Amino acid sequence: MGRSLITGGAGMLGKEIARLLLADNEDVTLLDVAPASRLPKDIRERVTLIRGDIANWAQVLEAVKTARPDTIYHVAAMMPPACEIDHAAGYAVNVGGTFNVLEAARLFDMGTIVYSSTTATFGSELPEVVPNDYVQRPPTMYGTSKVCSEQLGLHYQRHYGLDFRAVRFLSILGPGRVRGSGWSAYTSLMMEETARGRAFTIQVADSLRLRFIYVKDAALSLVQLARANADALTTRVYNLDGFSASTQELVNATRKNVPGAQITFEFDPDYQHVMETQYVCIQKQPDDSAARADWDWHPHYTLDEAVRDLVEDIRGSLE
Amino acid sequence: MTKNLITGGLGFIGFHLTNLLLEKGEEVAIFDVAAGSPLFRNIQDRVTLIRGDVSNWSQVLDAVRTSGADCIYHAGAMLPPGTEQNPQAAFNINVNGTYNILEAARMFDVKTVMFVSTLATFGRDVPSIVPNDAAQHPLNMYGVTKVCCERLGEFYQRRYGVNFRGVRLTAILGMGRVDSAQSAFLYKSGQEAAIGRPYSIYVDPDTSIAVLYVKDAAWGLYDLKNAPEEKLSTRIYNLYGMTATGQGIRDAVVKAVPDAVIDFQPDAQQIKLVQNLPEKLDDALARSDWGWAPRYSLDEAIADFVGDIRSRPDIYA
C-alpha cells in the first residue's frame, strides 16, 4: 500500500487527489493550513490531516517525517491575485514552500515528488501551440514563483537525484474553488453559485475564450505521472491540455446543467484587461504530446461533462 | 563510538573540545562557517569538516544527517562586540541558529545537545556570587540571545524530550583565543610573554575577574554530557574556575616565564567593563549534581597555556 502526502490537501485539487488515492487504498496524509472542517466527510474520516504552513520549514519536515510518504503531491500554493498583491508572501509560500518540500524529501530520503505547475509560467507573447520547452517569461508573481519552483525541482533532480516530476495546468475548473483564488475563478464559480441557487455576475466579455482542465483530470494526471515508469519520462515537467471554451459556451453549459441559472453580464474593462494581458497563458494551447507519448496522458472530461460533474458535486454537498 | 558534531568547532573552545574528544577516542565532525584554522593543522586529518552557517537550517540539518551525530556540542555563536554592533545578525545566528540545532536534533533523534552559555546572561543586579537560578536580566545583546537559547533548549527538553544540557562559562583563558573583549588581558599577558614580547595589563593590579581555563571548560562540557540523567536537577549549570586579580595573573605569568616583561597601564574604561562582569558564579549545583571541579589552578592553567603556545611556533612567533 502506497503512502502519500498531499500539500494543500484540503484545497480543490488536493481533495480530488486524496479521493483517487483513497480509492486505491493508499495511506493519505494532508498538509494544509486549513482546518479539518474544510474537508468533506468522505475524505475527513479516512486521511490524516496535519495542519501546517509549507512556508514553515520545520512544519514541512515534521509532516514528511511523520507521514513517511513514498510520494509527495506538492500542490499547495498561494494563488493570484493574493500573491500579486503580496509578493513577499507569494515568494515565501510558493518558492520557499517548494524549497522546504524538496529539502524535506532530500533529508528524509523520500521517493517521488509530483508538483503542480501552471501554464502561467509562460509569458504573454505565445504561439498558438505552446511547446513543452517554450521559453518561460511570466508577467506575474504567480508565474514567476512557479518557474522558480520548477527550476528548483529540476536542480534537486539533477544534483541530488530526487525524483521530481511536474505538470503545467491550464485554468482548473472544479467545485470548491475559493472566491478570490485567481482572476479566472469566475468560470467555476458561475457553475457553483448557480447550482447553490444564487445569482452570478460575469465581468468579462462573452467572447473571451480560455482553456481549461477539469479538476478530476488534473488530479488523475498527477497520480498517473507519479506512477509512471521513470524510464519512460523524456522530461520532468509536462504541459497538459484540456478543452477550450468561450464565456458564452461556459454560460450555456451551466444553464444546461442548472436549469433557471441566473447569470448576468456586467462588463468591467479592467477585469477584461487583466484576463487579456495576464492570462494569455490560458488562451493558447499547450502542446501536451510528450505527456501523451510518455505516460499515456489524455483528458477524460469535455466541457459539458465537466460542468455536469461539478454541478452534481455541489448538489451532493448541499444534501 | 560516540559521534560528535561541534558547531563553531574551528573556534577557541571547539579546538580544545575536539582535542579532548579525540583523546577519548570519539569521532568529531566540525560544523563551521570558516574554511579552516591553523590551530587544526596537526589534527585536521582526524576530524571531518563540514562548512556551513548555523543560521541556515538546511545546512544544519544536512550536517546533522551527514555526520550521523549522536551528540551535538553547540558552540557556534556570534560573540561581542559583533553582537552589539549588529543585533539583528546576533539574533539570527545565535537564536535562530540554536532553534535550527534543536529542530535538527529532534528530527534526527540526536541523543544529546550540549550548549555553551555565558555569565553574560546575568545582569548587574545579581548577588556577588551568582546562584545557578538567579534572575537573568542581561545587559547586552549577546546575553539576551543566550537567555533565549537557554529557554528554547529547556522547552525542547520538556516538550520533545531532546536531551538538552548547557553550561554557563565565565571569561576563558587558553591558547587560540583571538578576540579583544574586556577580558582579553587574561590571555594576552601569557601569550605575549610566551612569545617573548612585552605586555601592558590594562586593569589595576587589584581588579578581579572570574576566569576558567579553556581545558576545564572542555572538561565541564564533556563531564556534563556524560552525567547520568537522574543526577541532573536542572539543564543549565554555572561553571566556575577561579577569581584572579591583575596582579595574580602577572605573578602566574612570571612564574611560568621568568623573563616576562609585564607592567600595568590601567585604563579606567576597560576596568569599568571588567567590573561589570560578575566576579564569581556559584557552581555548587554542578559540583553536587555531577561532580564538577576545575582541574587547573591559576598557576597550572598559565603554565599549561604557555607550554601550548610554545608548542605551536607555526602560529605563535
What would your notes on this structure say?
- The complex is a heterodimer of chains A (319) and B (317).
- Chain A is an alpha/beta fold.
- Chain A is built from twelve helices and 14 strands.
- Chain A has helices at 12-23, 41-44, 57-67, 82-85, 87-107, 141-160, 186-195, 215-227, 247-257, 269-278, 289-295, 303-318; strands spanning 3-7, 27-32, 48-51, 71-74, 112-118, 129-130, 163-169, 171-173, 200-202, 209-214, 237-239, 243-246, 263-265, 285-286.
- In chain A, the strands form four sheets. Chain A has a seven-stranded parallel sheet, with helices on both faces. Chain A has a three-stranded mixed sheet with strand order 8-10-12.
- In chain A, strand 1, helix 1 (12-23) and strand 2 form a beta-alpha-beta unit.
- In chain A, helix 1 (12-23) crosses helix 8 (215-227).
- Chain A starts with a strand and ends with a helix.
- The model of chain A has no long low-confidence stretch (mean pLDDT 95).
- Chain B has 317 residues and is of the alpha/beta class.
- Chain B has helices spanning 12-23, 57-67, 82-85, 87-107, 141-160, 185-195, 214-226, 246-256, 268-275, 284-290, 298-310, and strands spanning 3-7, 27-32, 48-51, 71-74, 112-118, 129-130, 163-169, 171-173, 199-201, 208-213, 236-238, 242-245, 262-264, 280-281.
- Chain B is 41% helix and 19% strand.
- Chain B contains eleven helices and 14 strands.
- A seven-stranded parallel sheet of chain B has the order 3-2-1-4-5-7-11, with helices on both faces. In chain B, strands 8-10-12 form a three-stranded mixed sheet. Chain B has a two-stranded parallel sheet with strand order 6-14.
- In chain B, helix 6 packs across helix 11 (298-310).
- The chains are: A alpha/beta (319), B alpha/beta (317).
